[in-house]
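dumping this here so i dont lose it again. seq + smiles for adenosine-5'-triphosphate
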Amino acid sequence: MDIRKFIRSFGYAAEGLITAMREQNIRFHYTSAAVVWLVGFFTGLSVMEWMILILVMALVIGAELFNTAIERVVDLASPEIHPLAKQAKDIAAGAVLVFAIASVIIGMLIFLPKWF
Ligand SMILES: Nc1ncnc2c1ncn2[C@@H]1O[C@H](COP(=O)(O)OP(=O)(O)OP(=O)(O)O)[C@@H](O)[C@H]1O
């Protein structure tokens, strides 16, 4: 196994995360995740609840990163307006929405009984 190549690919992945930070939606998800961490810290959560929250946040951010990657590829492949380009972008955005809605519901199920 080529360790240097392996470490280099981590660098490329980090570069991707930094590049994606230019997207307003990604910044929104990063900020939301930070807020949830803070609220979770002050609310007091069990290990299982933390595990669920971390998984949910990673899924939403991961989905948004895939969405951003798909947007880039579509822009590259179809800089002109095309119905398939629209479908690809809107479906990818829809996938993020599904994860985001699920994450809000899971967050409410975890936090609301502790607050009220
Ligand atoms: N090449 C294209 N052909 C057809 N529709 C497109 C194309 N690019 C974007 N759209 C559509 O235009 C609408 C608005 O897109 P939006 O403002 O989010 O821009 P974007 O290119 O998708 O994203 P971003 O601004 O983050 O690059 C969406 O429904 C999107 O699918």
